[in-house]
Design a protein that fits this description.
10 helices, Peroxisomal Thiolase, Chain A, domain 1, five-stranded mixed β-sheet, binds oxa(dethia)-CoA, 2 domains, alpha/beta
Length: 331
């Protein structure tokens, strides 16, 4: 059986933080941020809001639009779980009132949503689950030093969720094949060093608890890996670039996604971007972009993402008829 998408939902915090808000207290400008990243504003969660809160809200939104049957598994792609243990997925399943369903987190940073889709497709293909809820959710502001202009301006908070059911590969909504990869030798370019078993228990003041990044190296690797992964995937699927109607890349930086699309030869009008309004929301970025893109039933979509690890992944899908085209009313 193949995983078929039949519902999508999103949740973002109400609070909007503009580039000018950063410029008012850090040595940066709206022009620098827009020119280098394409970001104009992002949503930032209030201190009381944790990742599971956004994940739960996105799940509720997706379930409203999906078929009536409850999913039989919950996967949450996240780098910013509420706690080091347990994962976010069991918390969301419990809040949804789903008793004893399989629920686990996927940690593949900004590529997590694609990895989550692949894991869900595996659960469906092996008959473990008939319906799976896949959520990408991150509160990146919590692991980003809000006084560091080089990283604080890049990230935003949010969650996106999709419901998947067992179906046929030829159906609209069918997801796959996949191309996934990683390169752990590059770990130092983008990481949160402390808080795990290598460097445990930092005090809140220690910089190691925040995300650190070599921006230029991440940029270079991101462009190469997403381009190569997308090309490999198209070849595996026996498709040409012209067969792709819409291109949804991880919304890290407008320049990165334009560079990948340029290299692949995808025309501008087929590129989807909402990074100007949400910044880099890590695992939430792909579902937020899908929900935002006013996709039309039957359009073939190429999805690709890249993140810390490094990890990367790409997949293909045909957009199903979900009964709406413009999703703006749902935010
Ligand atoms: O999911 C993956 C997550 N990460 C990413 O997607 C990040 C990938 N990398 C990038 O997007 C880019 O490298 C950045 C947007 C982070 C930086 O753009 P850049 O064109 O590579 O700039 P740069 O790192 O070469 O920095 C140029 C200058 C530096 O000053 P000096 O050393 O040349 O004097 C930075 O200190 O810009 C400075 N700078 C800033 N200036 C104003 C860095 N951040 C800022 C800022 N405002 N917010």
């Amino acid at each position: 059986m193949t995983a078929v998408l039949d519902g999508i939902g999103v949740a973002v915090p109400d609070r909007v933080v503009t580039n000018d808000d950063f410029a008012a207290r850090l040595d940066t400008t709206d022009d620098w941020i827009r020119t280098r990243t394409g970001i104009g504003e992002r949503r930032i969660a209030d201190p009381a809001v944790a990742t599971s809160d956004l994940a739960f809200a996105a799940a509720q939104d997706a379930l409203k639009h999906a078929g009536s049957e409850s999913p039989s598994a919950v996967l949450v792609a996240t780098t910013t779980p509420d706690h080091p243990m347990p994962g976010v997925a069991p918390l969301v399943a419990a809040r949804l009132g789903w008793d004893a369903v399989p629920a686990f987190d996927v940690q593949a940073a900004c590529a997590g949503f694609i990895y989550g889709l692949a894991a869900a497709a595996g659960l469906i293909a092996t008959g473990v689950s008939e319906r799976v809820l896949v959520i990408g959710a991150d509160v990146m502001s919590r692991i980003t030093n809000q006084d560091d202009r080089a990283t604080a301006v890049l990230f935003g908070d949010g969650a996106g969720a999709v419901t998947l059911r067992a179906g046929e590969a030829e159906e609209p909504g069918a997801i796959g094949p996949f191309d996934l990869g990683s390169d752990g030798t590059q770990v130092g370019h983008l990481m949160v060093e402390a808080g795990g078993t290598r460097v445990p228990g930092p005090s809140p003041e220690e910089p190691a608890r925040f995300l650190s990044m070599n921006g230029r190296d991440v940029y270079r690797h991101a462009v190469r890996r997403m381009t190569d992964s997308s090309s490999r995937l198209l070849e595996r699927a026996g498709l040409e670039v012209d067969d792709v109607d819409r291109f949804v890349a991880h919304q890290a930086n407008l320049r990165i996604l334009m560079a990948v699309a340029d290299r692949l030869g995808i025309p501008e009008e087929r590129r989807v971007s909402n990074v100007d309004r949400f910044g880099n929301t890590s695992a939430a970025s792909i579902p937020l972009a899908l929900a935002d893109a006013a996709l039309r039933p039957g359009e073939r979509i190429l999805l690709t993402a890249f993140g810390s690890g490094f990890t990367w992944g790409s997949t293909l899908m045909t957009w199903p008829d979900l009964g709406f085209v413009d999703n703006d009313h749902r935010r």
